[in-house]
């Protein structure tokens, strides 16, 4: 008997992100408008920069350029997090990185479920920034107990999604028919529900403790709170949002505009105030509102080494000591100026970034290197100097805690800043997750090393062929 063929997990992720995009555009029309603007700016940028277009044609699939790169959800319990890991695993998405956001006044810690490996990222780069609410940071014990009790009685996964996840685990994959069913059943978890599970009175108390707590505890599931396409010119999209009737957050998060893009720059439009219904004691529904969902854009640059990242963190700190971006945008221009000035010490050529060991690069043989009788044991620097080996930046595929906090804050309202005692607890997070998260630096270093090994192997083969 022949086994029915399984669909690849990359394919399931592609189906899933397409379904999520369609659902979100339908639920949040402003997001559809943002997508149009992003596609237009990407087209314009490519039209005036044929070199960029050529490079993207070689390294990326140009036709998918404006597709979503990430989304985000916020979970309420360890059990939800553990099950979510299994669901994402079916789609080839694994937990990478640990982000403690308590330091930034947001009572969550997080990871990003994402494809690892070049081929999977190229096929579809979709990832989900996933946060777990930290009820241990709620000071009010009574409220904490109530929130816990409320969360304990919800089931965010459909029976079909659970069943098909188990099936995929047992069989090692899903057939096309099962994969399609899985995608539609898994999607339900991310849907918006306008009927709250708590009374208006409880919602108000949760909201007063922290707006994020109300967002996680009050609803039937962890509605996707934003999706994020890739833009080739984030400053231009930010500047044009108002023309399209959408209100951008005050400033772009992350590094300043540079020739050599580093890490990640992101901005969003402000979360919308949406109608929700609360059930009264007599079973009647009363109208209220909730602010959670928005749209975001991102532009990615090179992954930095621990040394590069430390320099980035230092310079960001320097700029924020000079000007802290105000939520209302009133000092946006000053902030941008301070940020640009603070980053002057960060080299802005690939050669210097490489020479100083600040970024990760993928190495490959040049045209000349592919024909040469080079000494395979020569140093990398001399192979580069001889024009035999070239290097390209490895793209940063993860997130930045300070930026993430900025995105959270701008969508929680200006009054939401709150101090928590910094208390990263990666061990607790991993216990709840039921797995260890991948260390992002090890991951990039591994990609870099593999590319160097490939070069040496190819050079040795050429030498041996003499
Ligand atoms: C997640 C915010 C983090 C990003 O792009 O840094 C994030 C959230 O608001 O739930 O998505
Ligand atoms: Ni985001």
UniProtKB/TrEMBL annotation:
Per the entry, which co-factors are needed? Fe(2+)
- UniProt keyword annotation of Transmembrane helix present: no
Concerning SMART domains, the annotation shows: DUF1338
Instruction: Give the E.C. number(s).
Output: 1.13.11.93
Which stretches are transmembrane? none
Q: Where is the signal peptide?
A: none
Q: Which UniProt keywords apply?
A: Dioxygenase, Iron, Oxidoreductase
The UniProt entry, under CDD domains, shows: VOC_YdcJ_like (cd16348)
Q: Which Pfam families match?
A: HGLS
* Cited InterPro entries: HGLS, YdcJ_bac-like
Family recorded in the similarity comment: Belongs to the 2-oxoadipate dioxygenase/decarboxylase family.
The molecule here is called: 2-oxoadipate dioxygenase/decarboxylase
